[in-house]
Structures are given as C-alpha cells and as structure tokens.
Write a structure and sequence with these properties.
heterodimer, A: mainly alpha, 19 helices, 0% strand, globular, B: Alpha-Beta Plaits, two-stranded antiparallel sheet
Chain lengths: 428, 289
Amino acid sequence: MTVAKMDARKDTWEFPISAGSLVLWGLVLLGLVAAVVRYSQGLGAATNLSDGRPWGLWISFDVLCGIALAAGGFTLAATVYIFRFKRFYPLLRPTILTAFLGYALAATAVMFDLGLPWRIWHPIVYWNFHSAMFEVAWCVMTYTTVLALEVSPVVFERFNLQLPLRLIRAITIPLVIAGIILSTMHQSSLGTLFLLVPGRLHALWYTPILPLLFFVSAVAVGLAMVIFESSLSASAFRRRLELDLLSELGGVIPYVLGLYLLLKLGDLTLAGELGLMFEGSAASVLFLLEIVGGVILPIILFALPQVRRSRRGLFRSALLVIGGLILNRFNVALFGLKGALYVPSWMEFAVTVGLVSVGLLVYAFTVQNFPVLHGFVPRPKRPRPRLRKLFPQLPAREGYGETPLCEAEAFPTSGSPSQALSRDRKPS
Amino acid sequence: MALSRRDFLKLAGASVGGFLLTSGRSLASNTTGLPENEVSMLYDATKCVGCRACQNACREWNHTSPEVDPAGLYDAPQDLSSDTWTLIQLYQEGPVWSFVKHQCMHCLDPACVSACPVAALQKTPEGPVVYDTSRCFGCRYCMMACPFGVPKYQWERNTPLIRKCTFCADRLAQGIGPACVEACPTGALTWGTRGEMLAEAKSRIREHPDRYVDHIYGEHEGGGTLALYLSRVPFEKLGFPNLEPRPLPDRTRGAMLAVPAIIVGMGSLMSGTYWLRTRHEKDGEEEQR
C-alpha cells in the first residue's frame, strides 16, 4: 500500500533551494523589516494612510483581492463534492491549499492593517448585525477554519494518521456545504461594505447590486485562478498539465463572466449611467480597461476552442481575468473612491509582497512534501550528496510519478464514514 | 421527500427569524425615543464672529492638544483631526463671507454606528453618538462610512483610537450643556431638544428671510442630524455634502437582511443538489473520474 510506503519515508523532507526561492526569502526579509517598523512606530510611520484615506493597499489588495482570488476553493469543492464532477478531483487539493493560503494571508494582512491587532477577536464577543464588516469578520474566521479542515487530510495522509482521516472524511460533505454558504455570504458582503459610501464611490462602480457583482466576479476569478495556479505549478515542478480538465473549466468562464457583464451593463443602463464610461475621465479609462480587458476579451478568448486547448492560451486568458478582477477591486476601494491623494509607502508594498512570498514558499514546500498534487509519490530517502558523487549510478531523485495516490483513497462517494472506509479498503 | 420537508422547515424557521430580526430593530429604534426629544444644537453662522471660544472650550474639556501654526504663536488647526473635534473655518468668496463650525453631526441614523463591526460606536437614547474605546479594534470602517468625514484617527500613536466630538455626553450626564455651546459669547450656538431647535431655526428664518438661505441643514440630510445649521451662504459652499433624506444605513440593510435567506437558500440548494446527484450515483451511473 502506498500509504505504508510513505510512512516508512516520512522523515524525508524536500526543501530545495533555488534562485527563485532565495529571491522569495529576500522579499520575506524585507517584509519583516517593514513589519518591525509598523509594529514599533505605528501605522502613521509605516504607511501613507491618512484621515482622508483610511483604507489603502492592504485592504484593496491583500484583503479584497486575496479573498476573491481564493474563491476557487469553494467553487471547485462544489463542482467535485456537490455536483459530483469527480474528474476534477486532481485539481481540487492544490486549489483548496491555495484558497487556505489566500485566506491565511488576508487574515495576516488584517493583523497589519488593524490599529489594535491584538483585539482582532473582538467581533466574536462584540456583535453588530447591521455591519457588513461584522459579517465579513465572522465568515472569514469560520471559512478559514473550514479550509484548514479541508486541507488537513493532506497532513493526516502524510503521517498516516487514520483516525483523524476517518473523522474528517465523515464530515467532508457538511464542511463543503458550509464552505459554500460562508463564501457566498462574505464574497458578496465585501461588496456590501461599499454600499455605505454612495457619496464617495464613482457612479461607474457604485450600485446597489455591488454585493452580487462581487460574488459573480469571485466565482469567475476562482476558476481562472485554478488555471493560473495549475499552469504555474506544472512548470515549476515539471509536471504534466491536466489540460483537458483546465480546458473544460475554461469553457465555463464565458458563462460566468457573461452573466457579470450582463448584470454590470444592465445595471448601468437602468441607472442611465452608461454614458459615463465614454466621458474620457481617468475613471472612465480605468472602467473600460477593466471591462474590455478583464471581462469582454476573456469571454471571447475562453469561448474559442483553439485558445482553450493550448496551454499558453489558457494561461494568458486566465491572467486577463485575474488582472481584470484586481483592477476592479482597486477601482472600487481606491481609484474610484474620493479621498486624499495616496501612494502606498515602500513598507506597505514590502508587507504585501512579503506576504505573497510567504504564500508561495509555503505552497512550494507543501506540494513537495505532502500529497497535494495529482500523482504525488513520496521521494525515496535521498542518498547523501557525497554518496552520489562516489556512486553516480545511484538512482536519481524521483519526481512526480503517474501513479495516482491520493484521490483513490481520499474521495468518499458518500458522506457516510462506513462507505468511505469500505472504499478505502478496495485496492486501487 | 424527507429532504424537501426539512428544507421547508428551515425556510419557515428563517422567515420567523428574519421577522424577529426586523421587529427587533424597530423596537430598538423606538426605545431611543422620538427624534424631536433628542438633544440638539443649533449653529447660526450669521451670528458667529469666529472667536473660536468654542474650539478652546472643547480642547479644555476633552484635553486635546493644540495644533500650532508654523510660527508657534496660535492654535491654528487646518481641519478636524484626532486632536481637533470642532473647528471654526472662514469661507470667503468676493464680498460674501461666513464662518462655519465643523463637528460631528450626531446623525439620527448614523452610518458609523451601522458600520462598526464591534459596536464601539453607539447612539445613546439621549442622542449623542458615542465611542467605546475598549471595544474598537481599529478597522476604520467608520471613517469610510461617515459622509461628513468626522471620525479621525490617531495615526501617530502605536495604540491608536478613533477621536471625534461626543456632544459632551459626559457633561450632559452631569446636567450641564456642551462645552462649546456654553462658551459661545454671541449666541451663535444654542442647545435644547431637537424639536425646540428646529422650531427656533424656523422662526428665525421666518422673521429674517433676508438673512438666511431657506434651508436648515441637518433637518433632513442623511435622515436628519442633531447638529442643525443656519446660514446666509448656501451650505455646499461651506463644505457640507448634499445628502438625500434617506439614511445611509438603509443602503446596506437590504443586503444584511438577505443573509438568513442566503444561508437557507444556498444550504438547501447545495444539500438538494448533493442528494440528487448521489442518488444518481447509486443507480450505478457513477461518473468516471
């Protein structure tokens, strides 16, 4: 059994150091320097935020974009576990891991942005049901926990911990459903936050359906992120790309983005504000860039079979969707919002870049040591470098094999633990 | 069948829950009493001579630090800040001029109170919008939400708090009026119940229609405020936003009330789909992965 094989080798940890990872470590270090300034000198010294611009880069990018970009987690979990399109399972684990890291990083960024971060738990005891921020706080806390539980089988399998594995498999379906509900709530509530600022937010973005737009765009970008992240890890870890699955996911994007476009333009038409986008102001240019480059163009590209079937076409089209979403969140939270002039300080950039680097490093470490990616085969104990010099005929280090390991064991067809277990015992 | 029955029960439960939530809200707002009985202050810009006694009285009572001019001679704040909770500014355009007093407007339905996730900002039954320093965790959503840009932050501090005018709620509790009103030597500032202040403002406009624009700022703006203003200069020139009578929190209310429906709707949709799809699987038509 593969699990037993893995058990025997669990003391082997892969921690390769490459030029790329050294750069990332450097960026983390820079972020740490900024963190020291922020926590010792305060927000005023570390950031360019002011009374006229109370929310800046950390809210716009780390929180709003970070959480939207992590929407692949609930979208794909729904696809696989609820809609039962199990062929997508190979994409699920890396996506859930990415989502978990996305939420963990957003939560860490909040620890930087809050004036009194040691009170981050206050929404648990002090309630205000009228506040969208209160809802977001609760949903992000609970959904991060859900994601941690959804990721946990990866760790349990690595250490061959059967009891917690059984427990977590027994509650997988309720967990996934809870995750979908929580995501629907807070992805949209991030939009609700801005319903309170009609006087500040430009009419091209202010609309009562902002929560709905935030939710639909999060679903679209979640799918694009699956393509983006699979393509990146395929080239980084020299793996075969699940091109068929990704093309299929890409084929769904035009429908989701199409719905978004319909809602957005329909809403502007009904409000009689369609003409605003052609007035030539900075806001109208940003709006057109967002809608044409991040919505219309990807709809066309993903609708073309030849684009969907090429690695490069898929990757570039996904990049457009991601870029469009990031621009949209910045437009809503920063560019389209009246306030004092604001350019983030180097420390704000350093914290953001440092956090993303931490995410990339943790992702790389996890997929190299835990059964996350499809076909993970634990590497045999590495012969010592000196030994390899003396005996070059020793087997080279193995990479990812073609043997599917995790999904055959981890995927219960039903929520009931007994059935899940009986499936486990079947030889794969 | 069993599932759809359960869903029906869930839906029923949620509707009852939603109803309770709504009725709870109206009950809560009624316990604060009628708006005309809340405390209020009237600032008559035509009577203000710009002496800034109100500004100094505010400093003295609230122990805020002066913001001195570059020469270090005068207390000369440029804008409301964490240290300046009320501010007299001069508006001048050609021969037309006026002073204007900035401070927290103490809305009847404040956006900051609805925004605050930890209920650190609260509206007292007497009217003032007050701030509980022990609850705030510094998200600054109140600063985003306030249409008047009133809540200010102690950016320079390592344990920053939101600072703003409290309508001297602590003085009111002792039975004395707000520090700024008590300090005003010309009668530009008066205080009383909102009903009295509105009646006073209306009678002043009626008696001297030549002296005022026919508008009491704060009567309807954003659902109404406790700080009421009279002026001979149109209010947008004095830096006041043009707000519709609909209170800002109304705009998020719909989305927040939809939350129970989202929970029930999405929950039953997903459970139903799962049930349908797995029933399908047991029929032996399991999809290949």
